[in-house]
Structure prediction request, 339 residues.
Amino acid sequence: MKEKLQKISEEALSSINLSDSLDALNEVRVSVLGKKGALTGILKGMKDVAPEDRPKVGALVNETREKIEEAVNERKSKLESALREEKLRREVIDVTLPAKKIKIGHPHPNTVALEEVERIFIGMGYEVVEGPEVEYDYYNFEALNIPANHPAKDEQDTFYINKDILLRTQTSSVQIHIMEGGKLPVRMIAPGRVFRSDEVDATHSPCFHQIEGLVVDKGITMSDLKGTLEGFAREMFGDDIKTKFRPHHFPFTEPSAEMDVSCFKCGGKGCRFCKGEGWIEILGCGMVHPHVLEMCNIDPEEYTGFAFGVGLERIALLKYEIDDMRLLYENDNRFLEQF
Ligand code: DAH
Prediction:
């Protein structure tokens, strides 16, 4: 029995020292100390040993087991530290390599255009305000001189929440909120999202942005409107730009106009960009209708004002010579990165 144990022990120790991986080492351990291992086999054979010899043999088996376990642990820690060193060698960090460039996004063309518009009007003493996107019919239509059954209501296909509440079709509703606030004089712009039940195409989207403008004070005239909007166009599109006011109709202004700017692509000769016209329409405007002032408790005999509404996408498309509005909403990096 002693020789048998001696043999198991010697063989085990030499296999342990020859193991070159943790897996191989584990296999050796299992083959000797495991449930079906050689040493366990001996313990199972104890019943054949004479009872008086059993304590001695037992002690011998335990001694052998301890020796082997110790050898396994020693080998294990050697293998582990070799692995660790190998890993460290493999993962050297070259601190002289240039760092990876961090890719941060940048403002959307709409945002760039809006910030430019805001900068220009803030420079003229305007305040930037906001109004609700979910709006009462009253603010979106009624108070803007567009009563129920008015044909102008048809032009703006509307998303209704219920009979009285809708998604605003125009930022002009903010004019009413501000005038109702009662603080005069007013000099504000109100940028924001507007909604119309339109099909998506190159120039339409069910959700787009407008920038509303409103000035109310004593002695405001049409020449203030023209001077302001001409100044805005020059700042926005360059000193060479020409402007033109065409009579138009909006229910909440009287008189009303649309402002065109000379095509900056062809300078007015006519091209694909301006559809051969030489001019491009960029906003609607007019003198605030006396009835609108009255509905907001402002005396039209004492105060007058002008208002305007600019399509933000329009400005962005023109400024960056983009010919399809859908590009602004697709979020394709290859497009967005160009601005
Ligand atoms: N709200 C008008 C629209 O969406 C644009 C507009 C025209 C706004 C004239 C104004 C204005 O403030 O005076 O078509």
Summary: The chain is about 40% helix and 20% strand.
